[in-house]
Structures are given as C-alpha cells and as structure tokens.
Design a protein that fits this description.
The chain is of the alpha/beta class. The chain has helices at about 1-10, 30-35, 40, 60-65, 75-80, 130-135, 155-160, 170-175, 205-210, 210-230, 230-240, 250-260, 275-285, 290-295, 300-345, and strands at about 15-20, 45-50, 70, 85-95, 100-105, 120, 145, 165, 180-185, 195-200. The longest helix has about 45 residues, at about 300-345.
Length: about 350
C-alpha cells in the first residue's frame, strides 16, 4: 500500500539535457537511461538536445534555464571560479580525450616544438587543458602562428595547419580510414590529468528540486553502466533513433576509444575528488584564495541526499506502523473475542 501511495504522489518533471556535441557514442549512458526507462521510472521526462556545431557552449544554456542539465569539460570550473553557481555532478571521463594532432612525419615531437608553427585554435573553455599544455611549456600565443579559421581536419591534411586540436574518437578514425599517419600529444602525458564530459546543473535547481536532481543523477549513472556493458545496443539506438551521421564502424571505434577514459575497473563511475579539482583549478592559474572561496559546494553530494531520503522513508514507514497499531490490536482483540464466543457456543 505504501508503494502505491508514494507512486501516486510521484511528481512528473520535464527536463532538458544539453549535449556539447551532436549525437554519438560519447553520450551513450544518457541514451540508455532514456531507452531503458530509468528516467521514466523516476517520474522524469527527459529531452536530449544535440549541440549546434557553431554553438557548443552548454554553460549559458543551463544558466539561463534553457536546459536543466549539461555536459562540459574541466573548463566548467572556470565558470564556478567566476562566481557562477554551477555544480559538477559526475565526471564520466576520468581524463581528457582532447589532444593536439600532428602529422606522423612532423618534426614536432613535443609541445615545446610548437613555437613558430601554425596552430589551430577554438573555444578555450572547451579544451582548457590543451592551452594549459602550452602555458606549462612557457609558450604564449605570440610564439605561435594562430589559425582561427583554418581549423578543420581537411586544412590539417592539406598542410594549411601544422597542429590541430583533436578528439581521440573523431579525427583519428578518419585518418585511419585514409591511411594518413598521425601522432597525438595529449594532456595526460604532460601530467595534466583533467576530468572531461562532466554532467552538471545549477545550484538553484538542486535547491528547488533536490529529489528530482538526485533521481536524474542515479538514472544517468545506471544508464552509463548499461552502456559500458552493451555498447552494440547503444550503437543501434544512436543509428535508429538519433539519426547520427557517423557510420556504425565509426561509432564502434568511438566506443572502443572512449570507454577507456571511463576507467570503470579502477574508479567509481563518475567519481570526483576535491583535491583533483583543486589541482585543475591551479592548472588554470587560479589562486588559493579564489579556490577556497568558490570550490566548496562545486561537487555534488548524492549520498548525503540519498541517506536523508532513506531516513525520511523510514520515518514515514514507522509513522504508518504506529498509526496502524491501535486499529490492528482492536481487530485482533475483536477476532479473539469472536473466536472465544464461538468456542463457548460450540461447547
């Protein structure tokens, strides 16, 4: 009866999840959570919105309320340090899939060799760790020949650009198909081990609907666990329901590459630590005072709300039992009295 009662009171929420790119395996867990009904079970109607390639910044959309949840990279922290009340809920990728791309026969062997080279640039916050690699090697923009328009893979293939930002599951697949040799210079190799594909929301949404946010988080993590175990099913969903432009072969390559960044065998799915976020903040050049001022509350604490919810459920159950006890004993006493009277009559 309690289950029916709580089920009838379950609220229905319509929420928007804003992706930071177009539909692909990168967002597999959310597709699985939606497909397997995990959001629906929690009373949440989720719409997943792909990014416009010309406008991939998810933060303004979440801050404005255009979206309720978003996906971002470690650059999300820069917004928090600027005073924007954003909360990191889960770091799906435990390290960044963004790297610098150079030709296989290039004389560029390290970031230090970027000086005087034509380097493609795009949104700094989208790949802040790549810019940190430059800063770590004391390379400023004046040391480079920055290209802000010639940033396509074809420009790089044609030799218009020497160095290009790349995503390990995208450009490398195309280059392998074309038998073009390449090398990747990645942040982790330089000791810049940043989080990526961070699920986030606004603090005011947590304040207004803490249970809904918790349910969305739990359903999403459950979806990601399914996606890890059933990548082929995700690919089928992406092709049939989201009209991805990527081929099945590309999606399979993407799955193989990106699942390594989740590290499910080494870490709790989506886990984050304040010490690592502090290190990332320092990597971005933030001072200790600013970090101390803004970092507290940046990491979502689902277990705190979950334990609180658990306690309240117990309290409600105990109250129902206590309220029901008098009626139970009256019925029991009445039953025993009737039984005694029947036995007396029979005797």
């Amino acid at each position: 009866m309690l289950v029916l009662f709580t089920g009838q009171l379950q609220a229905q929420y319509d929420v928007v999840l804003q992706l930071k790119w177009q539909h692909q395996f990168q967002f597999a867990g959310y597709y699985m959570a939606l497909e397997n009904g995990y959001y629906r079970e929690k009373g949440i109607n989720v719409t997943i919105i792909a990014a416009n390639p010309d406008d991939v910044d998810t933060v303004p959309k979440v801050l404005s309320g255009q979206a309720d949840f978003g996906i971002a990279n470690s650059g999300l922290l820069l917004h928090r340090l600027a005073g924007e009340q954003l909360v990191a809920m889960a770091a799906i990728f435990q390290s960044s899939p963004y790297c610098w791309l150079v030709k296989g026969d290039s004389t560029i062997r390290s970031v230090a060799d970027f000086k005087g080279k034509r380097v493609g640039f795009f949104n700094r916050e989208e790949s802040a760790e790549l810019f940190s690699m430059l800063a770590q090697n004391d390379i400023s923009q004046s040391d480079l020949i920055p290209e802000t328009t010639k940033v396509s893979l074809q420009n790089w293939i044609d030799g218009d650009v020497d160095v290009l930002p790349a995503y390990v599951s995208n450009e490398p697949f195309t280059l392998k198909q074309k038998n073009i040799d390449y090398r990747l210079l990645c942040p982790k190799r330089y000791g810049l081990n940043t989080y990526s594909d961070v699920l986030f929301t606004r603090q005011d949404l947590i304040d207004q609907n803490p249970q809904m946010v918790l349910d969305f988080y739990l359903a999403s993590i459950k979806g990601w666990k399914d996606a890890i175990n059933h990548p082929q099913k995700v690919i089928d969903i992406i092709k049939s329901q989201y009209q991805s432009k990527k081929s099945r072969a590309h999606l399979a390559f993407e799955a193989q590459e990106l699942l390594e960044f989740i590290h499910p065998e080494q870490a709790k799915l989506g886990q984050m630590s304040s010490s690592r976020w502090r290190a990332i903040a320092m990597m971005h050049g933030a001072g200790k005072q600013k970090i101390d001022e803004h970092l507290n509350g940046f990491i979502y604490k689902p277990q705190k709300l979950a334990s609180s919810r658990f306690s309240w459920m117990h309290i409600i159950a105990i109250m129902i039992i206590l309220i029901s006890l008098p009626s139970y004993y009256r019925l029991l006493f009445k039953h025993k009295k009737s039984k005694s009277q029947l036995e007396t009559t029979l005797n």
